[in-house]
Amino acid sequence: MADAYAAGHRCAFTADGPRGPARVSKAGPVQLAELAGATWIGAYHAEPDRAWYLKSWDRFAIPKPFSTVTFGWPAHVRPELGLVQKALDEAVAMSEGIRD
Questions:
Q1: Residue 70 near residue 95 (C-beta atoms within 8 A)
Q2: Domain residue spans in the chain?
Q3: DSSP assignment of the chain, as one string?
Q4: Residue 32 region, left (φ>0) first, then alpha (ψ -120 to 50), else beta?
Q5: Relative to the CA of 41, which of 2, 32, 59, 73 has its CA 20 to 30 Å away?
Q6: What's the CA gap between 36 and 30, in Å, rounded?
Q7: What is the distance between the alpha carbons of residues 31 and 22, in angstroms, rounded to a whole number?
Q8: What's the pLDDT tens digit per position in 4-55?
Q9: pTM score, two decimals?
Q10: Max alpha carbon distance in the chain (Å)?
Q11: What are the C-alpha distances in Å from 14 to residues 66, 67, 83?
Q12: For 47-71, what is the mean pLDDT?
């Protein structure tokens, strides 16, 4: 992924990792940013108004047809774990607040 970033591609993956807990950022985004030389990280959260939820650790949501998905996307932050977590929390609050 660092090579893809160096080639000019935008890169994204889940900040809370493959095993959770949900909505708790792990060190991966920060480590990748440092490896790739990125100076900023953006966090976002997508919240569907209607969805099927899997019985997994993160309650993975599959939006139902014709549902509306709201995105929360706060400002970019420096690649520091505490800042990434704060941005993730803000993204969740934004997407849930806009939807309500």
A1: yes
A2: 2-99
A3: -HHHHHTT------TTTTT--TT---SHHHHHHHHHT---B---EEEESSEEE-SSTT--EEEPTT--EEEE----B-S-HHHHHHHHHHHHHHHHHHH-
A4: alpha
A5: 59
A6: 10
A7: 19
A8: 988 999 888 888 877 888 889 999 889 999 999 888 898 888 999 999 999 9
A9: 0.81
A10: 40
A11: 24, 22, 15
A12: 93
Token pair in block for residue 30:
């920060």
Q: Which two tokens stand for residue 86?
A: 């704060």
Q: Tokens for 99?
A: 């939807």
Cα 39 from chain centre: 17
Residue linked to tokens 């889940």: 14
Alpha carbons 63 and 48: distance in angstroms, whole number: 6
